[in-house]
Design goal:
alpha/beta, binds nicotinamide-adenine-dinucleotide
Length: 322
């Protein structure tokens, strides 16, 4: 019987499909140091980002056929080594795209209306200092009509572009590979109302100079250099709002703190940080920063999509190899 270890959990939607296919799925978490003893009994391991599947572990598991990552990034798996051993590595690109895009807008709306700060101050001062807080948060802004720079026009970037267009923003996209995309705007629950907009990408410099909001949707850059540092920030508009729901390190955090302190950057929405899981305290408590603890894909919908997409790939591949 095929045995699957879902070491970092699996959504019931995926679990059901695997069990219906007749596989044994074990959900009990095996500590990392015990995996070399336990994993050799399994055909498949499913992980999120917590479990590391490194070369030395893979080498001890000749029965292993698939390493499945519930999510996108494969930093915790030695992919090239696994593939050389004939083990397939699968992941779920796109499954959380809408959730991450909505979180990016959550931060944009929060910063545009000071909700992040209002939520911090109102519980303590709302009864005694209401009028002063009302004044403090009185210079909000609308998103409609503003220019949104979307850096990275892949799966998540596309959803951000779609949402920005639907809100009436002037959306400018940047990508190293993508030149143009026909973006369909979906009107809820209607079959016959649709709108399709052609979006062409523009040079990075042009977009960062023009944008009121800049949202990052690229992978970690291999060269270790931040995509947005002091030089790039200097080229941006006074009072720009920056959003990073992609990867910590894409924005140089020291340069960002300087720009937040000077007011050059009006606000930053951060879901990801350098040095996770211990982000800089100065960023966490900065009054111009809206923060969340890397929860881009943490919705019921995204997790169900991820579980289902993984299960379908595992079933298909096992049908081919077993
Ligand atoms: P994707 O591969 O579909 O798209 C990334 C795009 O970025 C590609 O089109 C690529 O050509 C482009 N790109 C790469 N480097 C670039 C550069 N320097 N300049 C311009 N374009 C560049 O990826 P995706 O699924 O859209 O994911 C985007 C990011 O979101 C990734 O970093 C991913 O790890 C992150 N992510 C975060 C969460 C979260 O929980 N916050 C969840 C899922 C994904």
């Amino acid at each position: 019987m095929i045995k699957i270890l879902a070491n970092d959990g699996l959504h019931p939607a995926g679990l059901r499909l695997l069990q219906q296919a007749g596989y044994q799925v074990d959900l009990e978490r095996v500590p990392q140091e015990k995996l070399p003893e336990v994993l050799p009994d399994y055909d498949v391991i499913i992980v999120r980002s917590a479990t590391k599947v490194r070369e030395d572990l893979i080498a001890r598991c000749p029965r292993l056929k698939i390493i499945a990552r519930a999510g996108v990034g494969l930093d915790n798996i030695d992919v090239a080594f696994a593939e050389r051993q004939g083990i397939a590595v699968v992941n779920t690109p796109g499954a959380s795209a809408v959730s991450v895009a909505e979180l990016a807008f959550g931060h944009m709306f929060a910063l545009a209306r000071y909700l992040h700060l209002s939520n911090r101050l109102m519980p303590a001062e709302g009864r005694t200092n209401f009028k002063a807080l009302k004044k403090q948060f009185s210079s909000g802004m609308e998103l409609r009509g503003r220019t949104l720079g979307v850096i990275g026009f892949g799966k998540i970037g596309l959803e951000v572009v779609r949402m920005g267009l639907a809100l009436g923003m002037n959306v400018l996209a940047v990508d190293l590979r993508v030149e143009e995309v026909q973006v369909d705007l979906r009107i809820y629950d209607t079959n016959n109302v649709s709108l399709s907009v052609q979006v062409c990408t523009l040079p990075f410099e042009e977009v960062i100079r023009q944008a009121d909001f800049i949202s990052l949707h690229v992978p970690a850059q291999g060269n270790g250099k931040a995509l947005i540092g002091k030089e790039e920030i200097a080229k941006m508009k006074e009072g720009v709002i920056l959003i990073n729901t992609a990867r910590g390190g894409l924005i140089d955090e020291e340069a960002l703190l300087d720009a937040l302190n000077s007011g050059k950057v009006r606000g930053a929405g951060l879901d990801v940080f350098e040095g996770e899981p211990r982000p800089k305290q100065e960023l966490l408590e900065h009054p111009r920063v809206s923060v969340s603890p890397h929860i881009g894909a943490s919705t019921g919908e995204a997790q169900a999509n991820i579980g289902q997409m993984l299960a379908e790939q595992i079933i298909k591949r096992l049908a081919g190899v077993s």
